[in-house]
Amino acid sequence: MAKVKAPRRPRAETPKGFRDYFGPEVSRRKAMLDTIAGVYHRYGFDPLETSAVETVDALGKFLPDVDRPNAGVFAWQEDAEPEGAAGDWLALRYDLTAPLARVAAQYRNDLPTPYRRYAMGPVWRNEKPGPGRFRQFYQCDADTVGAGSVAADAEICAMLADTLEAVGIRRGDYVVRVNNRKVLEGLFDRVLGCDEGNESAQMGAVCDREHRKDDIFRSIDKFDKVGAQGVRDLLTKGRMDQSGDFTKGCGLTDEQAGMVVGFLEARGPSNGATIQELRNLIGNIPKGGEGIGELDEIAKLLAAQGYHEDRIVIDPSVVRGLGYYTGPVFEAELTFEITDEKGRKRQFGSVAGGGRYDDLVKRFTGQLMPATGVSIGVDRLLAALDARGGAGKRPDGPVVVTVMDRDRMADYQAMAGDLRRAGIRAEVYLGNPKNFGNQLKYADRRGSPAAIIQGMDEAARGVVQIKDLILGARIAADASHEEWKAQPAQTEVPRADLVAALRRILGQG
Amino acid sequence: MAKVKAPRRPRAETPKGFRDYFGPEVSRRKAMLDTIAGVYHRYGFDPLETSAVETVDALGKFLPDVDRPNAGVFAWQEDAEPEGAAGDWLALRYDLTAPLARVAAQYRNDLPTPYRRYAMGPVWRNEKPGPGRFRQFYQCDADTVGAGSVAADAEICAMLADTLEAVGIRRGDYVVRVNNRKVLEGLFDRVLGCDEGNESAQMGAVCDREHRKDDIFRSIDKFDKVGAQGVRDLLTKGRMDQSGDFTKGCGLTDEQAGMVVGFLEARGPSNGATIQELRNLIGNIPKGGEGIGELDEIAKLLAAQGYHEDRIVIDPSVVRGLGYYTGPVFEAELTFEITDEKGRKRQFGSVAGGGRYDDLVKRFTGQLMPATGVSIGVDRLLAALDARGGAGKRPDGPVVVTVMDRDRMADYQAMAGDLRRAGIRAEVYLGNPKNFGNQLKYADRRGSPAAIIQGMDEAARGVVQIKDLILGARIAADASHEEWKAQPAQTEVPRADLVAALRRILGQG
Question: Whole-model pTM?
Answer without folding.
Answer: 0.88
